[in-house]
Amino acid sequence: MTDTPKKPPRILSIAGSDSSGGAGIQADIKTITMLGGYAMTAITAVTAQNSTGVMAVEAMSPDLVDQQIAACIEDIGVDAIKIGMLGSPAIADLVADRLQWFEVPIVFDPVMVATSGAVLADDATISGFRRLMGMATLITPNLPELAALTSTDEANLAEDDHKAMFKAAQALSEQHDCDVLAKGGHAEGERIYDLLVTPEPRAVGFEHQRIETRHTHGTGCTLSSAIATVLGHGQSVEHSIRLARKFIYKAIENAPGFGEGSGPLGHQSVRF
């Protein structure tokens, strides 16, 4: 008698498309697949971009985004959700309306600025983040995003003692009753320090040696979709972060070297 293969966790990524494949929906699909998940997508915006920058952005209609989400959930089902670039305030509100009754892990990466420096969320869209943060299991802001969401001086967040990072992450966690992973990659130094803060409050630090490379396009997208996938496998938030950070470290180590700017990661080279 042959054992029935275990079904993969169903992971829905709600995010923007990156035409060059390094970030956004494309990075999410690669990550979810390599970590043993089944990837589904709701595309919120289409971008023309590559390793050197974002040339154009066009948001999808809110109704089309809603139909994409409904089509996935109503037929395939979902075990975890990753939310990335939203594209417009209307889409942010629609996603919040659609997901407010779902009791699956939600990882929200509050994308505001691309690695290249292009602005991907205006003030009105950022304001719409509030509802989504209130229903998220985990928020994954980098230091500029954490500064913007908590009205904190970004320079203070990058200090070596990490006290300001903890204080800002704690405030965000308590305000929205969710876990916050503050990502320290924008800080100076030879080591990367990330900090998980929970509403209790509880804090867990994660640290590794910085890889000196320009090939970091899509790191935030990759990390958040990796965490969502491991959560979909039934792991805890803390363990999901540990495994996701290992995945992204290997993906950076194995970057193929494409592009003239901030190149893509080597998702295809990581075997777990």
Largest sheet: 9 strands, mixed
Shape: globular
Distance separating the two termini = 28 Å
Number of strands: 9
Report the uncertain regions.
Answer: none
Oligomer designation: single chain
User: C-alpha Rg, in Å?
Assistant: 17 Å
- In spatial order, strands of the major sheet run 3-2-1-4-5-6-7-8-9
Strand content: 15-25%
Helix content: 25-40%
Mean pLDDT: 91
State the secondary-structure class. alpha/beta
Number of helices: 9
Question: If you had to describe this structure to a student in words, what would you say it looks like?
Answer:
The chain contains 9 helices and 9 strands. It has a 9-stranded mixed beta sheet with strand order 3-2-1-4-5-6-7-8-9, sandwiched between helices. It is α/β, with parallel strands linked by helices and 272 residues long. Strand 2 and strand 3 form a beta hairpin.
